[in-house]
UniProtKB/TrEMBL annotation:
Phylogenetic lineage: Bacteria, Bacillati, Bacillota, Bacilli, Bacillales
Source organism per UniProt: Planococcus chinensis
Keywords of the record: Cell membrane, Membrane, Transmembrane, Transmembrane helix, Transport
Domain of life: Bacteria
Similarity-based family: Belongs to the binding-protein-dependent transport system permease family.
InterPro entries in alphabetical order: AA_ABC_Transporter_Permease (IPR051322), MetI-like (IPR000515), MetI-like_sf (IPR035906)
Name by which UniProt lists this protein: Methionine ABC transporter permease
Amino acid sequence: MGFDFQHMMELWPDISKAFGETLYMIGISLAIAIIIGLPLGIVLFVTDRGLFLENRFVKSVLGFIVNMVRSIPFIILLVALIPLTKLLVDSTIGPAAASVSLSVAAIPFFARIVETSLREIDKGVIEAAVAVGATPWMIIKDVLLPEAKTGLVQGVTITIISLVAYSAMAGVVGGGGIGDLAIRFGYYRYDNTIMIVTVVILIVLVQILQQLGDWTSKAIDKR
């Protein structure tokens, strides 16, 4: 069975709903990743050796936790976090439930991107800020974040695109969204039309997100 346009139109309400669920999952997970991952990435950077808040213990502990979460394949993380998901949202299926695992996966991912972006800053700029007596908060707010903003925007773009892939994977365990639609219709019912539509939607979504990210990055890069 090939592509059937009429069949696609009949299932369009389901496709639209799945697309909305995917955006919902990505939106929640991205917000949590930025809220927690940004300060986590900053702490990982400023507590490193030779920097103004050097603390090997904090750096080692946080680094171990971040690496531990990142080392777990997302599909395994989905299953492992079922008890936590049940506790937080009182359900183990649906977009809200999938957002818990997506957030847990995205936080350390984005934190490492933030740390990497901050490492690209010229150390001389940081040393100059320390020399004039700037407080750690002032250095973070007025030096680190402004200097790294281009890399941070690119990091947000990479995180969003990764979340698109993760959200599709969440459909395997009933997380809703495009992935769930592809599993239920495309895989279990051998519906090629739905498989083609879901693949096209994901490709177009990623292309749009990447273009927006590139445009925003260039717009704020004053170098």
